[in-house]
Design a protein that fits this description.
- It comes from Ruegeria atlantica.
- This is YHS domain protein.
- Keywords: Signal.
- There is one protein chain.
- By secondary structure, this protein is of the alpha+beta class.
- The chain has one domain.
- It is built from 7 helices and 4 strands, in the order ααββααββααα.
- β3 and β4 form a beta hairpin.
- The protein is globular.
- The chain starts with a helix and ends with a helix.
Length: about 160
């Protein structure tokens, strides 16, 4: 566990600034403009099976964050049941949440597990997370109860 914390600690400096610019509150990873998931369509992971950039003309606001969609059908599906498509841990890195931190989730490093979308920070973090998905999900979910309302910067102290 300590080697994971030191890895995360090293990564912390490189993402602290980007992670702290949140418009929609600390539970949700959104850009300073309020754009969630860097503009990727959350429904497309489930329908197309791959990260798909959303169209800036096809959007909806949910929990003060703007989501973009590749098409009107995906937008309608999201609006009907957003919880089915929202990424775990507010779109923050799943591995980071397991370690008790909030780092930007990169929409290109993802996996659907038990019908839930998980994002990770980078390819190497994704590979580490895939080494024990059930364990990291359990740990991240337990941590989320105490870190959800904290800013990324507060967790770095």
């Amino acid at each position: 566990m300590n080697k994971f914390k030191s890895l995360i600690g090293g990564v912390a400096l490189s993402v602290a600034i980007a992670s702290s610019a949140l418009a929609a509150g600390v539970e949700l990873n959104a850009s300073s403009t309020g754009l969630a998931m860097q503009g990727y369509d959350p429904v497309a992971y489930f329908t197309a099976g791959e990260p798909t950039k959303g169209d800036y003309r096809i959007t909806t606001l949910h929990n003060d964050a703007m989501y973009r969609f590749a098409n009107e059908e995906n937008k309608a599906a999201f609006e009907e049941n957003p919880e089915a498509y929202l990424p775990a841990y507010g779109g923050y890195c799943a591995f980071g949440a397991a370690m008790g931190f909030k780092f930007d989730g990169d929409p290109t490093y993802w996996k659907i597990v038990d019908n839930k979308l998980y994002l990770n920070l980078s390819q190497d973090i994704q590979q580490r997370w895939e080494g024990d998905i059930p364990g990291f999900v359990e740990q991240a979910s337990a941590n989320w109860e105490t870190i959800a309302d904290k800013t990324p910067a507060e967790l770095q102290q």
